Amino acid sequence: MAALSPNITIMLRAAEKAAKSLIRDFGEVENLQVSRKGPANFVSAADLRSEEIIFEDLKKSRPAFGFLMEERGEVKSETAGQEEFRFIVDPLDGTTNFLHGIPHFNISIGLERITDSGREIIAGLIMDPIKNEVFHAEKGTGAFMQNRRLRISARKELAHSIVAGGDAASKGKPEQSRFIKGITALTGYTSGFRRMGAAALDLCYVAAGRFDGFWEHGLKPWDVAAGTLIVKEAGGTVISLYGDSNPVYADSILASNVGIHAELKKILQQTME
Asked: Quick one: the chain helix, strand, coil %, rounded to 5?
């Protein structure tokens, strides 16, 4: 991997340490599939271990930064009055895949800058430990997978596009209803629909041109913080389907290439009326 900035370097180091732990635990989960009790409790412990590794490593490198994490929640900076930056961490995105021994999950770390004018993600890193793919971006410098520059796809017609969506099974009835309406509305318009079960990787796949679009309802900031920046730096568009100014904190997110964005947005917003 080419020379990385200091912030991306420390994020990568923390993710690599957590990835080793997750890979070991993933091997155990596959063995636990045959047990009557199942691996659910073990996966929760794996999630917590991963988060602890990332938290301790990043805190050591950036003691003045705060944190927003899936398990711990918000952790203030140890330096009083220094809340300009915070890491937004998902230590195991794709938990259900992990739980069932499906090798498609990731670690996601975003770095947010908090100013008087609002919040913005300035760096992001997403690691797929199984496929050994590392996606990363910094504001204004482009998006990359390892050393390869990422570009969104150039497709301009939905009929030639693959669109991905989330897994609403774990969410509430309103999200499930909206999601089903969205799938129904898109049926017949695209060349394929995918539900992979790891939102951060779905966003990376949009950035890499593997998917042409992705949308989901009911996500949390740690699901999308790093991925939204990676899509934008690859030339893509990320919005809230409800019009929120900051899609990282929105209830419904749409990421896509520029060619199909308007049509995809129109179809999905009509299902939410």
From this structure: 40, 25, 35
